[in-house]
Structures are given as structure tokens and as C-alpha cells.
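User: Structure please.
Assistant: Input sequence and predicted structure:
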Amino acid sequence: MDRNPRNTAAPKAKPRSIQPLIWIVVVCLAPIIFAVSAYYVPGLGLRPDEASNYGRLIDPQRPVPSAETLGLKTEDGKPFDLASLKGKWVLATADQGACPESCVTKLFILRNSHASQGKNVERLVRVWFVTDDAPISEQILEAYRGTIIVRADPRKLAAFLAPASTAPAEDALAAPMWIIDPLGNLMLEFPEDADPVSVRKDISKLIYNSRIG
């Protein structure tokens, strides 16, 4: 018998298992598979709500018209350009100078929402569009000191704030409140009889998450 070790056949190497590679691929793909399933299979209950805001997002957003188009005037009769407030979040409402209870409620909600923003309070301003020539009581002026008050033609203002409404201009303007972003775009509308807490939360989220204004 040939005992020469050179003639002894070398043992065959065992094939490497691909199982570790499979596990690596599975681990890498798992987050992607989970995300796709969450989005495209609502029945799994994993998909987040499409929107968490209380107010209605205006789509598409509408840029602030020119000063000539809006024709706003201050209480002393000087022209006012709404675009001059770019760089700030504008909390806006519109109503008659007599300011009935519903008007006071809106002014109150916006004032308190503004005041509650803490260190971000300087990033916002409040505007009241007065839609007639009626005088404003000293009580209202004192209570809402700090609100920018401008007189507006209701038809011109409604063309910007409520173009889809079929109601008379003053009626269309009397119910909602709005937010104009620091880039000068009308972007959010709050409903009639809005919940003050929900309005404040919406404004807080906008300010907290925004890098503008």
C-alpha cells in the first residue's frame, strides 16, 4: 500500500452557510418593509393620521395681495400694506367696528393664543380687519391693545380670505379666523365657534416646528 502522504486526498472544505448573509439582509430590509406596510395597508392600524391640525389648511396657499388690491387703511386713514408684516406669523380676524359678542370671542382667542407662546411671542402679530366705518369702543380698544386694526373694503378682503364663499362679503368674513405665514401666504383657517384650546395648540405647533418667522 502506498503510504506516501502526498497521495492522500485532502478533505473537501465544507461549503459556507449563507444563513448569516440572509439574516443581515432581513435585518436591513425589516424597517423598510414595516414602513411600506404601515403606509399602504391601513388595516394594520399602523398608518398615522394624514393631518393633526385643527384648522383647515388652505390649499393652494394664497399670497397676500398688493396694497393697491386690498386697499387697507389704518385708523388715521393712512394706507396699510399687509405685506409689511412678512417675517411674522399673522393671526387675523375680520368683523364690524361695533364688534358683537362673536367678534369679541375671536379677538379674545387670538389674543390669548398669542400671549401663550412664551419666548416665541415676538414671532407673531394680531390683525383685526374692520369691515365698515363704525366706531370702535374705547373698551374694545383697551382690551385688545396691541392688535393691529385696519379698515377694509369687505368685498376686496373677501376676495382674498374667502373667495369660495357664496355668502355676502361681511357674512363670509365674520365667522372664521386665519393665519398668514411669515412668507406672506394665507395658509390656515379656523372654523366658526372654534375651540380656543385647539386654536392655541395649532398655533403652538406651527411656531415650534417652523424655522421661519
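The chain has a mean pLDDT of 87.
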